[in-house]
Structure formats: structure tokens, C-alpha cells
Amino acid sequence: MHDRIRLGLNVDHVATVRNARGGHAPDPVRAAQMALKAGVDGITAHLREDRRHILDKDVFAIKEVCDTFGRPLNFEMAATEEMVALAVEMKPHAACLVPERREERTTEGGLDVVGQLETVGAAVAKFNALGIRSSLFIATDPAQVRAAALVKAPVIEFHTGALCDSFREQEDVIFNNELSRLQAAVQQAHDLGIEVHAGHGIDFDTVGFIARIPHIRELNIGHFLIGEAIFIGLEASLHRMRDLIDAAHKGVRE
Ligand SMILES: CC(=O)[C@@H](O)[C@H](O)COP(=O)(O)O
Ligand SMILES: NCC(=O)COP(=O)(O)O
User: Fold this and answer.
1) Which end of the chain, C or N, has fewer beta carbons within 10 A?
2) Share of the chain above pLDDT 90, in %
3) Strands 73-77 and 42-46, bridge-based pairing
4) Which residues of the sequence carry a binding annotation for 1-deoxy-D-xylulose 5-phosphate (predicted)?
């Protein structure tokens, strides 16, 4: 029985703003520190192959800050040799394998575990052996969930982008379909003994129906919270999100 869903802050887009001008401000490491002080359960950082936001030095510094607070770093990365080597050197709490295409604006869809069983399986096995929790960022597709179990991934993070977009665009048919798929996929993963996380595109309006789904243990939220921090501050935006998660999750039977 879990009475609380963990909230992880993704600090990528603090680095996006910094990199728009080069230089050092705003600093994603400082954002991670402030968020941890404000009570967030962990930090997510995605080191993209093109280094468009988070840089190598950021992720190592964020790992140190997380260690100081005794809270996890969820290191998002493509399943490439370069990134696997970096994760092995850094030893984050968790390494989340995500799909990456250079030309995409943001992460589109989930990792194709079915089509890359060998590559993904090798990375998961390496991380499992080193005590790094592997997480696979996948779509709500039953075949991908089965493949995640096959490669012995302890954690899955479901991509909630299409669900959240359809809610905002008031595309009711797509929304209902996406929500049913997420509910079914979470239950399937849970039944297979996999810990379930969710993330992408979540905001104050969409977090409720996601947090109401039993068996989701962690939500990783970034772009919206960093944007909202401009208007109400980082701490207030984190606390509001925390309250919304708790209110939605109250009474959910695990
Ligand atoms: C995998 C994921 O959902 C996050 O890392 C998110 O994609 C933030 O990074 P981008 O906006 O660069 O995709
Ligand atoms: N893995 C999802 C994540 O870290 C945050 O995604 P977003 O809230 O920035 O869309």
C-alpha cells in the first residue's frame, strides 16, 4: 500500500533558457537545489545527444546535489554506447532510457523496446548489475510492456504527452482512448511486478486524472513547472502540484 505518489522535477528547461544566451544563468543545478529544499522527491535531467539543454557538467553537478540531499537523480538518456558509458561513470540512482530523434522538438512516443530487445536488454543488464535502476520510457502499448518485462526492467515510465495534449485540445475521443490505454497499461505493468512512473506534458489541469490511477508510484514533470515558476515561483509551483497530486490520489486503493 502506497499512500503517496513521488514527484520528480525535470530541470531540462532551465538549461534551455540558459543556453538561449550561452553563459551560466539560469542554472539548472540551482533549480535542482531549490526544488530539493522545497521537498521534491527527486530530480530528472535528460542529457540529449545534441546537448540542446542539459550539458554533461550539469548532470554531474545535479547528481552531487541529489546525493547531498539523499534523493534520487533520474538520468534520462538515449540507449547509445556514449550515454551508457556516461551513466556507468556517474552511477545515478536511475537511468531512464528514452527514444531520441535529433530533429524532434520534444520526445515523441516511447522507446521501441520490442524492436531493440538486444540493445535495451544489454543496457538494462549492465545497469541492474551496477545497482542503477533502469527505467524504460515507453508508450502505453501492451507489447512494449511485455518486452520491458522480458528485458527485466524494474521500472517503466509511461509517456503521457498524447493524453495531456488531447485534454488541452478537447479531443474527447482521443482523450478517452488514451486514458483507457494508460489505465490498462499501468495495471498490466503492475501485474508483471514492474514499478510504474508517468510523465511528459503534465500540468495542473491534467495531473488529477493521472494521479487517480492506482499503482503509479512517481510522476516526473518539468516543462510546465519550470514555466509556471516564472509566474508564481518554483517553490509555489511545486507545492501546488504536490497538493493536486495528493488530493487526486487520496482514497485510491493500491
Ligand atoms: C523524456 C521526457 O519526456 C523528458 O525528458 C522531456 O522530453 C524533456 O526533454 P525534451 O523537452 O527535450 O524532450
Ligand atoms: N519524463 C518526463 C519528464 O521528465 C518531464 O516531461 P515534461 O513535463 O517536461 O514534458
Assistant:
1) N
2) 93
3) parallel
4) 12-13, 48, 53, 106
Give residue limits of the domains in the chain.
Answer: 6-249
Pocket lining for ligand 2, CB < 6 angstroms: 10, 44, 157, 199-202, 220-224
Distance CA 200, CA 15 (A): 17
User: Which has more confidence, 103 or 220?
Assistant: 220
pTM, two decimals, is: 0.97
Under 8 Å CB-to-CB from 135, ≥6 apart: which residues? Answer: 74, 94, 95, 96, 97, 153, 154, 155, 156, 157, 197
Q: What is the CA(199)–ligand 2 centre distance, in A?
A: 5
**Average pLDDT across the chain, whole number:** 96
Angstrom distance (rounded) from CA 28 to CA 162: 27
Least confident of 10-19, 98-107, 117-126: 98-107
What's the 44 CA to ligand 2 centre distance in angstroms?
8
Atom of ligand 1 nearest to the CA of 104: 13
Per-residue pLDDT for 121 more than 90? yes
Could you tell me which residues are annotated as the binding site?
Answer: 10, 12-13, 21, 48, 53, 106, 201, 222-223
How far apart (Å, rounded) are the C-alpha atoms in residues 165 and 158? 15
Instruction: Please work out, in degrees rounded to the nearest 5, the angle formed at the alpha carbon of residue 70 by the alpha carbons of 11 and 17.
Output: 10
Atom of ligand 2 nearest to the CA of 161: 10
Asked whether 222 lines ligand 1 (CB < 6 A), one says yes
- Asked if residues 120 and 98 have their Cβ atoms less than 8 Å apart, the reply is no
Name the CATH code of domain 6-249 (choices 1.10.3660.10, 3.20.20.70, 3.40.47.10, 3.65.10.10): 3.20.20.70
